[in-house]
Amino acid sequence: MRDKGNLACGVIEKAKEPAIEGWVLYDGACGFCRRWVTFWEKTLRKHGFRIVALQSAWAAEKLQLSEQELASDFRLLLAGGEQITGADGYRFLMRRIWWAKPLYWLSTLPLLRSLFDAGYRAFADNRHCISRTCHLTQRGK
């Protein structure tokens, strides 16, 4: 039970954050990606994931990839060091969020898996053009 005296004095108990499961690494130069991931940041945090731009020094140091390889795909870096990229990264996250599980299950069916993967790849390859078309420019531009 909470101590009512502490609440009356303005002390608010802060909910304990979950242990870090991993990091969602996104293309910070992509306006769409930046908006998408920051929109979902609170949900991701609840499930133990932090967000970091692929262009950050931290990501470059952790992943040890060239700039081109680094920004080629959405990536998950799990706390144990495992990396999951692309559509598989989205499936990994959907499987851990209760209301997204039906989408996960659909994305694993043979025909829908192929469509999900192809849709991801088409978007990833054209994300900067989509961002410009939707006027989702880089920060400061």
Task: Walk me through the structure.
It is a single chain. This protein has helices spanning 4-8, 31-39, 41-46, 57-63, 67-70, 86-96, 101-108, 110-133; strands spanning 22-26, 49-53, 75-78, 83-85. The chain has a four-stranded mixed sheet with strand order 2-1-3-4, sandwiched between helices. Helix 6 crosses helix 7 (101-108). The longest helix is centred in the last third of the chain and has 24 residues, at 110-133. It is an alpha+beta fold. It has one domain (18-133). The chain has eight helices and four strands.
Would you summarize the structure shown here?
The chain has 141 residues and is an alpha+beta fold. It is 52% helix and 12% strand. The protein has one domain.
Features:
single chain, 141 residues, alpha+beta, 8 helices, 4 strands, globular, disordered N terminus
- Distance linking N and C termini: 50 Å
How many distinct helices?
Answer: 8
Major sheet: size, sense and barrel closure? Answer: 4 strands, mixed
Give the overall average pLDDT. Answer: 84
Give the oligomer, counting copies of the same chain as homo and different chains as hetero: single chain
The unreliable regions are 1-9
What topology, given as strand order, has the largest sheet? 2-1-3-4
> Number of domains in the coordinates?
1
* Helix amount: 40-55%
Question: By helix and strand content, what is the structural category?
Answer: alpha+beta
Percentage of β-strand residues: 5-15%
Order of helices and strands: HEHHEHHEEHHH
How many strand units? 4
Q: Per the principal axes of the C-alpha atoms, what is the gross shape?
A: globular
Q: In angstroms, what is the radius of gyration?
A: 18 Å
